[in-house]
Fold these 3 entries.
Entry 1:
Amino acid sequence: MSTELIVRELGLRDYISVWNAMREFTQKRSATTQDELWLVEHHPIFTLGQAGKAEHILQTTDIPIVRTDRGGQVTFHGPGQVVGYVLLDLRRKKIGIRPLVALLEQVIIDLLADYQIVASNRCDAPGVYIEGEKICSIGLRVKQGCTYHGFALNVDLDLKPFKMINPCGFSGLKMTQLSYYQKQFSKLKLHEQLVAYMVQKLGYTSAHVSTTENNERLLMGVHNG
């Protein structure tokens, strides 16, 4: 059984199509399907978790609001945010959901350390923080022992929409992003670092970047195994 992580660079995509593709991938995967990491940016959208409370949306605008099936409350996605969808077989990796969240937090903490940014997690709220301000949100769904959804790392985006919500259900929580601390960075390099830490922390032997053609086939509903 391969312990290689498949990585899909999806670019800028609408939320609904990628969400549908994640659910279909998870439904169709078998015990031998390789785990995957999808890296994507989304057009502006608010997403409300499965048990999310509408009261945490403080202001409605022309930005769409979608109730999705991940854990957590409300958050915002937009261009300039790196979203990592983590499609793993927990049973095969012999890991629980809480340890997985902790590992994902550590991936982001180590990544930020490469940019001389000191970040940490919190025991009372999943995600990664810099001096109390949140830079990365985490929300997952487990179905038939497999995960989808993942993390959203603020890199260089318009943070104003976060003021229209209680981010992750916390009133007054301030959001921050990598570009506030490090002006010089490469998106390509950032993705490479993310993948390297995912491989290291989650025990894969290597990563394989899928072709653009295969990515398009997957998003059109053709499962490639």
Entry 2:
Amino acid sequence: MPDSLIPSHGGYRKLKSFQLAQLAYDLTVSFVEHYIPRNSRTCDQMVQAARSGVQNIAEGSLASGTSKKTELKLTNVARASLEELRLDYEDFLRQRGYSLWQQDDPREAQFTEARCKTLEDVKTWVNGQRFGQGLSGQRGPSGRSGLSGQALSRPSIKSRSSTPVPEIAANAALILIRIASALLDRQLARLASDFEKEGGFTERLCRTRYKNRNLPHHPKLKESKI
């Protein structure tokens, strides 16, 4: 209801941006476990940046009932956290001589079309790339590739792609981050527009008070004064 003092809020789990940011977080935790020294500052920074992206989307959604300004601020923090995470993955690729896939790389389209929803889905796709299967690998009863979601660092025993596994995993994470960030950019634009047109909690409170103050008096109250 547009005139409701506290509108519907907190449905962050249905947001595609939240779902992708959460998947990027899960992938990052697995990634740093295999490829980043556990006691390094980079390990902590990547995990915290990924976590911040998820938590701030959720917190902003919950705060939106009484503060659109807070929702805007926290959604922007989530967007900034994902940007920090993106730079960490790009640094990893550059410093180790791996390739950063461009947006016209067919593997990006393949990963997007795979519509991975869980970390196991991503691991299955990464291992499919290792074996040169892409999207054409055989499917098992669950609908996933016949390969299981093995650990990202497990060596292959079949014909192997020339692309190193860390490169595939890092670029998969970057694709997730890029899509989530684009969705957050749209959210921020919509939130800013809504805030400009409708205001926030204070404006709704003023409208509600004004409306209640100008309601017609009850007939019985009028009769009692006659």
Entry 3:
Amino acid sequence: MNIFNFNKKPEDEKYVGALRRGAAVSIDVWIVLILRVMAMQILGKIWMEQQLITFFEEFEETFGTQTIKDTPEHLNFILHHTIFIHVIIFYSIVVMVGAIYHALLNSCVWQATIGKRIMKIIMVKENGARISFQRALLHYFLSLLPFAFLFYLMSYQIRNHLTFYQAIMSSQLNLIFGILFVLWVQIHLFTKKRTTAYDIICNTLIINGKTSFKWPWSKQLDSNA
């Protein structure tokens, strides 16, 4: 039995289509972008700024210039310098800002990010129950897989001086990944409950509704307040 109160009755619940789901995603993209810029500014000021100063000082001492070029010597210096690890950690934290935003809000009493809340849709398990933080986190990272393929294809295209179409058709592996990419992002057009591939894997649904909790951190007892 679902312990959450919704503004819509169970018989009025409908599965959410791509348009409203896309609108919610668009809102969340801008919110996460702002949060990431704030995180980059804060981390850059208190941590990365000094790391970069040290790196460029040591780079100039070694090569007599602060201009980094695409040469084996310069690349080898970067890969073996501590700045390489710091940059990886820095951008990992920036990525996790979005992951935590989606995982916390989708698994809280709202059962929705701010974008979903505005569009009056929620994320639930197949049985209507609230999802866990771990499930929400997995759902987020699975939703990013198409972007990983696009980045790979763009780099492949640039490296081999090909058009986008030529990059896809140049190898069987790229073609297979291309087909999987289309299915990954468009399979909801053919599923009864309008579920994406990552919805199916995570056993989640996006449905119309809005929990009665005022804040994401509200307690369950507040639902009747």
